[in-house]
Design a protein that fits this description.
The complex is a heterodimer of chains A (about 400) and B (about 270). Chain A has 13 helices and two strands. Chain A has helices spanning about 10-35, 50-65, 65-75, 85-105, 115-120, 125-155, 160-185, 195-225, 230-260, 265-275, 290-310, 315-340, 355-389; strands spanning about 275-280, 280-285. Chain A has a two-stranded antiparallel ribbon with strand order 1-2. In chain A, strand 1 and strand 2 (about 280-285) form a beta hairpin. With about 270 residues, chain B is of the alpha+beta class. Chain B is built from nine helices and nine strands. Chain B has helices at about 5-40, 60-65, 70-80, 100-105, 135-140, 165-170, 215-220, 225-230, 245-255, and strands at about 55-60, 95-100, 125, 145, 155, 175, 210, 235-240, 270-274. In chain B, strand 4 (about 145) and strand 5 form a beta hairpin. Chain B starts with a helix and ends with a strand. The chains are: A mainly alpha (about 400), B alpha+beta (about 270). Chains A and B meet through helix 5 and helix 6 of A and helix 4, helix 5, helix 6 and strand 6 of B.
Chain lengths: ~400, ~270
């Protein structure tokens, strides 16, 4: 089946070479980081996690987003998702692969990563995160591949895979819950210390994951004969729209608690992210334009996605999905992690700017993710089209 | 082995384990209660180790004000003894103990009026609190940071993977990361560790470090380096919180002290006289 990835149009090969070149440049940046240390990044004593960990956090959501396809198809027997569900499972594989790469890129001593297994520590949330992420990776590789292979052979998937598919559903919830627990269990970081962090993560995941999927599905519709179908498209609009609204509802709850209670620690990071934090004689606001853009884009995306369905416009659908995806990427892939470090534990402010090498490594990991995704999608679509022809 | 016999053995085994474990679990619960009340009696804010040494420190800020330069001397001595590198910039900075201002060390103190003007110019020594309930130890995925029976929160530099979860978890900003090689030299050939102390290990790139309450000195009967520097003025009182007759216990009994971020539930081993 994998041989399908080795045959493709010129466009396919140009795309893969483009990804490989980014991976090559980023690889060189990583060699530099490996030799010099993490000091090559923009991180500091005060902002100890940067774009690596924030990308990781966001991508866990993209992986968990696959749930929104698996659940209706396998539990509610929603047949219209028959063609798209495999895209969700394979997207989860690529997203988790990126998560793991971002974690390794962020380690000061990557050669010691296996210490997490050698000295298992159940009271550390990072230990559980390792278990749920790797478990989810295995589950999706297994379920996606077995089901697709059965289709390739022209038979129904074997019965024994069903329990694994069912298991993958609560497991998807667990990956984003445990990832939220990394943050919301830390005393002293008021911005993260909120019980709705896990629900908020899930809401944004269920909007951002399917949004990306929808954009890719529309690209595939244009460039190949693969069409996920109008009904699936329309149903996904509902899912993305409501999940995105829930995310903004949760964000609103955070604003209310902070600004109505007037507890300084609860307001500081929101001040920093959305209005600029006045501190001493200076105002710190390097994330404000991003965070405000995130809110505007997210709300516009929600409005437009329903308009796109009413008008049955694929172009508008792509635009609205991109708006929602980018909005939540800023919210979680930027603001959530970086904001938590401002102000620091001694009420001092250090702003973070990623370095060129750091951005190179980040781009390379994204490119690797898309490389994996392209291979998997190439295989899946070739099989699907072959069977239907 | 037939299944009935195996089931019987399983149940018998479990019962035996439960029989052994239950009373000791019950005892340790009771003990925990006893310790909590005992700790309250000596003025500590939480449960302490029931027996043996339990190290703590009182920082008398008034005495540091009376002896200008003393706090800075404590810092430089500690950093020399422990081979703490100086990179000359804030981004890569590593510090085990430092002098900070009241508003930063006690950021939750919100009394808006009636604050003495001098408060913010006080030299307040800041270091790891060696919490009884340390969030950093809870967060560490490899047990590279751990709490010993004597109350000291230590680090295993050889096990640390450099994930910096402990730095996110510490409510006191007490931890530093080796962003680059501390054993290296700057552009002009100056080593980051000015004069290496061969009695204490240097660290490598990519691991976290922090104050260790001078475990290595306590092990050979010496007091922590900073306490030794401040010995004459008694600005730092170091001792056994479990011993009701120790100097620190006497100070805590007779003097009002404050702790950093008590609402975080970490139960620090450091006490401040402002």
């Amino acid at each position: 089946m994998i041989e399908k990835a080795l045959k493709g149009s010129t466009g396919y090969w140009v795309w893969m070479l483009f990804l490989l070149s980014i991976m090559g440049v980023g690889g060189l940046c990583y060699v530099q980081q490996f030799n010099y240390g993490l000091g090559i990044t923009g991180m500091s004593r005060d902002v100890t996690w940067g774009v690596y960990i924030s990308q990781f956090t966001f991508l866990v959501g993209v992986a968990a987003g696959g749930l929104m396809l698996v659940l209706p198809y396998y539990i509610h027997n929603y047949k219209a998702f028959g063609r798209i569900v495999i895209l969700g499972e394979f997207m989860a594989i690529a997203a988790i692969a990126m998560c793991l790469m971002f974690i390794i890129a962020d380690l000061g001593q990557p050669m010691r990563a296996m210490n997490v297994l050698l000295h298992p520590t159940p009271h550390s949330m990072l230990f559980w995160d390792m278990i749920v992420l790797n478990g989810y990776l295995v589950l999706n590789v297994l379920c996606g591949w077995v089901v697709l292979q059965s289709e390739y052979k022209g038979i129904k998937y074997p019965k024994w895979i069903k329990p694994f598919i069912y298991l993958s559903i609560p497991w998807a919830i667990s990956i984003h819950t445990v990832t939220a627990f990394l943050y919301c269990g830390l005393p002293g970081r008021h911005f993260w210390l909120t019980a709705i962090l896990a629900p908020r993560f899930l809401a944004s995941a269920f909007a951002a994951g399917p949004s990306l999927l929808m954009v890719i599905a529309m690209i595939l519709k244009k460039t190949t004969k693969f069409d996920v179908g109008r009904e699936a498209q329309d149903k996904l609009v509902t899912i993305i729209g409501y999940a995105a609204m829930l995310n903004f509802f949760f964000l609103g709850c955070e604003f209310f608690v902070a600004y109505y209670s007037q507890i300084p620690g609860h307001m500081h990071t929101l001040d920093y992210l959305f209005w600029g934090l006045g501190h001493g004689d200076e105002v710190y606001n390097n994330l404000v334009p991003f965070m405000r853009a995130s809110v505007v884009m997210g709300l516009a995306g929600i409005a437009l996605i329903f308009v796109s369905r009413a008008k049955q416009s694929d172009g508008l659908l792509v635009v609205s999905c991109l708006l929602i995806f980018i909005a939540f990427w800023i919210d979680k892939g930027l603001g959530l992690v970086l904001g938590g470090f401002v102000p620091n534990m001694l009420d001092q402010v250090t702003e973070y700017y990623p370095s060129a090498q750091e951005l190179g490594i980040t781009a390379a990991i994204w490119a690797t993710g898309f490389f994996i995704l392209s291979i998997l999608y190439k295989v899946a679509i070739s099989v699907k089209l072959e069977k239907e022809a | 082995m037939d299944s009935k016999r195996r089931d019987f053995l399983k149940i018998a085994g479990l019962t035996a384990i439960a029989g052994i474990a239950a009373p000791s679990a019950f005892n340790s619960l009771l003990k925990g209660e006893a310790v909590a009340s005992e700790a309250a009696a000596v003025g500590a804010h939480g449960a302490a180790a029931p027996t043996g040494k339990r190290w703590g420190m009182v920082i008398d800020v008034k005495k540091f004000t009376e002896n200008p330069g003393l706090a800075e001397k404590c810092v430089s001595t500690c950093h020399t003894v422990h081979n703490v590198p100086d990179f000359g910039n804030k981004k890569d900075e590593i510090k085990w103990i430092w002098v900070d201002s009241f508003k930063h060390v006690f950021p939750d103190d919100s009394s808006q009026y009636k604050k003495p003007e001098a408060l913010d110019s006080l030299p307040i020594l800041t270091l790891c609190n060696h919490c009884d309930n340390p969030p950093c130890v809870r967060a560490c995925p490899t047990q590279a940071t751990f709490k010993s029976k004597d109350g000291i929160v230590g680090m295993d530099y050889h096990r640390c993977i450099g994930c910096r979860f402990c730095m996110a978890a510490c409510p006191y900003g007490a931890r530093s990361f080796n962003w680059r090689d501390p054993r290296g030299k700057d552009a002009s050939g100056q080593p980051f560790i000015k004069a290496e102390n061969p009695k204490f290990p240097t660290r490598m790139r990519g691991v976290v470090e922090k104050c260790n309450f001078c475990t290595e000195r306590l092990a050979i009967g010496q007091i922590p380096a900073c306490v030794e520097v401040a010995a004459q003025s008694k600005a730092l009182v170091f001792g056994d919180l479990n011993d009701p007759n120790s100097e620190i216990s006497q100070v805590l009994k007779t003097t009002f002290t404050i702790q950093r971020k008590p609402s975080a539930g970490t139960h620090p081993s450091l006490f401040y006289i402002i």
